[in-house]
Every structure is written in structure tokens, then in C-alpha cells.
Amino acid sequence: MKILMVNKFLYPNGGSETYVFKLGEYLAASGHEVQYFGMQHPANVVGNRVQAYTSNMDFHGGSPLAKVLYPVKTIYSVEARKKIRLVLDDFQPDICHLNNFNFQLTPSIILEIRKWSKQTGHPCRILFTAHDYQLVCPNHMCRNPVTKTNCEKCLGGHYLNCVKGRCIHGSLAKSAVGAAEAVFWNMNRVYKQIDTVICCSEFMKSKLDTNPVLAEKTVAMHNFVDEVPAKKTEKKDYVLYFGRFSQEKGIETLVQAAKELPHIPFIFAGSGPLEHLLEGVPNIKNVGFQTGEALETLIREARFTVYPSEWYENCPFSVMESILYGTPVLGAAIGGIPELIRPGETGELFQSGNLQELKTKLCCLYEAAAYDTVCDFASVEGYAAELMKLYGETMCCR
């Protein structure tokens, strides 16, 4: 089977790229032909045979002319259609597996895939893995950055609320472009051309299902994790938070809880705009951003980790990674987090943003006997097996 993986970034840039590269690598190792389409960048680690990519779009830089053209190019891209057509003609994929494409590649590539398939008579299924809420929320997070609150006002197609709330970077102009993009493509019903939408949580599926065009296409599949050898690790006396130090991650609430629980030692591993809140708190040790073996050791040796997020998390790998390494998680009951934690077995849940309940659960877990945490998340092999069923389904009637 020939599979074209589509993602705007073709170099390591975040969780969605990790998903694309690891899945593509496994599929190729399993005997399938895999190529990639996205933006040109000197750091690209994957690509396609004809070396066809769109120009790199840097929204934080670029020439004055480029900045003028960006609002138009983020809605519809003639270049993206031309470049992906070169790949389609050469590779002739059976599957186009889309990932993050809005703004840089634009949904116009979906039109070109369908046009190519119709003109050549070559059947090609289009699947889309949703890594965020972009198809129903122009700022992709269902969260207003100005009010710093979760927001569902655009769900159901009411995209003018994005402009009213200045939901994209607090900018009226950027919010207007984002709303225009959503209105344009929903009016054109382009997402009807997608065969299957893979959601990484049931929670995300429920939000995407508010769009009737998507509701009949969505399936929920939690992301996969790497298999790791079992290792018995002696626990140490600390609670670990690892991740971004930002408001939507619940850092303010967690730091306040730590201040009011001076008998519990905390280790914070990460970085972010609210790092200053950790300063001067005697029972908080900030070890900075950690990766690899150092982070694994921190996770394995913690009594438990805490994930106090206050936005609609999708399928946070931090929660899965903790359980993978045999460490229970105290997680906020918000977004897709509750789907990953089995209370009493792999961790506990508390009401997101509720300081008092967070403190109570922190104390209970710190004083509790060790959990015999067992990971039952899908490996890439198991995930790919389910994915192949979606790849192989009979083409939908259009």
C-alpha cells in the first residue's frame, strides 16, 4: 500500500510530528511505501521522491510582502495544490493521511487530492488525524487567550465569536483571518471529502461531532506509546510535575497548592512564562527542562506525577508516559485526561481548577501505599493494526 503522510512540519516540532514520524517509520518497516508532503525547511527529516514542498511560512518573520500575502495564503494555497499534485502524479498513493495542514498547507490540498483521484481513476482514501480542535474552533484550543477561559462559542459554526473574542493571539486581525478561513471552508463543505477523522480522545470526538459534516466520519483512537522494558524502581519522596509552566496547564493552582502543603516536596521539570512563580517556594525544586534518561528517571522515581491542566487537553503524552514508566498520575478531570487514568489503579482525578480538591488528593496520594501501575495503552504495532482497518475500508460514496 502506498501512503502519503501530510503534515505542515516535516521536522521535529511537537507531538504531532512525533506521531507522524513514528507511525510512518513503522508502516514503512511493515512493507508499505511511505512518502511525506509539507513545507520546505532545512531541518526536514522526511520527504518525497520529487522533492515537492510548499514554501516555508514564518508568521513571526518574513518579508513585508510575505506578511501582506499571508492572510490570503492561509485560507487558500494555489502553491500547495500545485506541489501536492506533483507528488500525487509521481507517487500515486492509495492513502493520503492528513495531519496538521490548516493555515500553512490549507484545506485546498483536499480539493487537489480529489481532483487527481477523479481525473486518473486511481482510488485514494483521505484520512485525517485531528491533533487539536482546529476544524471546529479557529484558534484550535477551544480557549480564549484574552479571558484565559475555555470557550465553545464557535462550536456549531458560529465563527464570528472568534473575532469578537480576539481568540487568535489576542489580535483582531488574526482572529478575523482565522474566522474567515473557517467560514470559507465550511461553506464549501470541503471536510465532507475526508473519509475518516481520527480523534485522539472520546472528548475530542464529542467536540468535532458538533459539526454535522464531521459527525458521521469520526472515530476515537488514543495515541500509541513506545514499549519500554519493565524496570523495578525505588520511589523517592517527591511529587513531580513535568511540562510547560503556563496558565492553561494549571501551574498557578498547583504552585498555590504546594505553598499550602509545605510537608510535601515537589519537583518541577520544564520551562515557560510562569516559571517565576516557582521562585522562593521552599518545597519546590525547579530542575528545568529535562529529556531522555534524566526525565525518565525523574518520572520513575516520583511517588506520583501531577497533571493539573485547566484547558481541554486532547490525549496528553505526559500522562501516558508517567503510567508507561510505572508511576501513577493525579490528573485534572478535563478534556481527554480522564480517559487515560483508572482511579484507584493508575492514579486519581480531581476537578480541574479546584484548589481544595487538588490539595486533598495530593495529600491522599502522598500518604497512600504504592500503586501497582500497569500500562495498557496501545503500542505503535497495535495502533497501526487498527489504522489499517480504516485504510482498507471500502471507499465512501460521494
Protein architecture, described:
It is a single chain. This protein has two domains: 2-224 and 380-391, Glycogen Phosphorylase B (Rossmann fold), CATH 3.40.50; 239-367, Glycogen Phosphorylase B (Rossmann fold, 3-Layer(aba) Sandwich), CATH 3.40.50.2000. Residues 65-69 and 394-398 have low confidence and may be disordered. The chain has helices at residues 15-29, 64-73, 78-91, 108-120, 160-164, 172-187, 202-208, 212-215, 251-259, 292-301, 317-324, 355-367, 380-391, and strands at 2-6, 33-37, 95-98, 125-130, 143-144, 149-150, 196-199, 218-220, 239-244, 266-271, 284-286, 304-307, 329-332, 347-350. It is built from 13 helices and 14 strands. It is of the alpha/beta class and 398 residues long. Helix 9 links the parallel strand 9 (239-244) and strand 10 (266-271). The strands form three sheets. A six-stranded parallel sheet has the order 2-1-3-4-7-8, with helices on both faces. The protein has a six-stranded parallel sheet with strand order 11-10-9-12-13-14, sandwiched between helices.
Keywords:
globular, six-stranded parallel β-sheet, single chain, 398 residues, alpha/beta, Rossmann fold
